[in-house]
Amino acid sequence: MPRRVPDIPLPALKEPTLETWTLKLKTITPMFGGSAIPRGVDAQNPIRAASVRGHLRFWWRATAGAGYSDPRELFEAEERIWGSTGTQKQGLVALSVSNQTHENTRQPSSLGEKVKPYERFFVYPFLRTKSDAEASGLTGVSFTLSLRLSEKLESQQKEEVRQAVRAWLAFGGVGARTRRGLGALRVLESNQNNWQPKDLAELKGWFGDLQASPEYSSLGGAQAVFSEVTKPENAWRKLASFWTRLRKGHYTGKYLEYSAMGGAMWEDHAKLKALSTRDKAVSLAKPYMGMPIIYQKFSDSFAGEIKPASEKQSRMASPIILKPVAFVDGVVRAMVLVLSAPKPIKVSIKGQLYDLTWPANDRVLRALGTQGFVETILSAAKKEGFTEEVQL
Q1: Would you say the pTM of this structure is higher than 0.90?
Q2: Domain boundaries, position 304
Q3: Residues 6 or more apart from 221 whose CB is under 8 A from it?
Q4: From CA 309, how far away is CA 371, in angstroms rounded?
Q5: Which of 61, 120, 129, 145 could join 112 in a cystine, given CB atoms 3.0 to 4.6 angstroms apart?
Q6: Are residues 31 and 168 in the same domain?
Q7: How many of the other CB atoms lie within 10 Å of CB of 366?
């Protein structure tokens, strides 16, 4: 007897419902680095989805991370959203990059002027060295970023992802040295209102209620000052002008404005020169701005490297972010942002460990009329025309 087959149609396969966010983006400052090759940029595919994911993970920690009680809880929450290569756990947000184009190539040596090479200070890792040729960058990089959100993503997690994307666009970028304004982004076309603030009040509204973290850098408790509206290239140069002056401390003595040929006015150099291996502590300003710091040998000055004291950590990312920030309708402001971040307490100088303290009576601080680190950075920025304050 032949086997009877029930006349029942096969059920249709149910496709998972994925919410998709699509952003069309374009750089407003040159992009350098960011490829799998050190110092390189892939002219055919300059934007890598893996790199964007890395940026978004950082800004997720900087915005949502302080809400978790300990590093383990933080890692587990981050792993649930973004996945983990260590545990081979797939995340709930899939990224893809498409439609990549760029306008021109740019050499770092072409930035700035001979007398005032401001922007060149931001791209020094890409300049020609004794062992490496000059590395090229790209301008006007355009691309489409798609984020596909799993239906398993809870509403709170979705809002955390949205906030991370907004923070990346406002305070980050693509490629290398985004904390110095490289690879800054603008949102194009109709959905820019969802991702770019219309003004400083809305920017504060997006990020003004975040918690600060004692463990790692965060936007909660961060402070920023902005310049007036300007063009992207002018905003970046203004930031470079501020940074070169700050690094040399040209606020006192015969240097009341930046001088390319002028020496540093911070007292760090004299203290380092006088430092003895018998000393246990040192009072310096520049390590608070990021490490490592490499001092070249000039005459009888100090020469050597200052690094974080941890054996596992050779770098301390600068808590200072300098960036042209794009607002709705093409408005751009130059921004100096000081993240809320743990202060360094120990440094390694020529292989020896020292307790580190912020200088109480440096001549640059006396000229600025300041005492603390954040107060000093913001006061110096205001002298360069950064007058609009926003506390996050």
Answers
A1: yes
A2: 209-392
A3: 210, 212, 340, 392
A4: 24
A5: 120
A6: yes
A7: 12
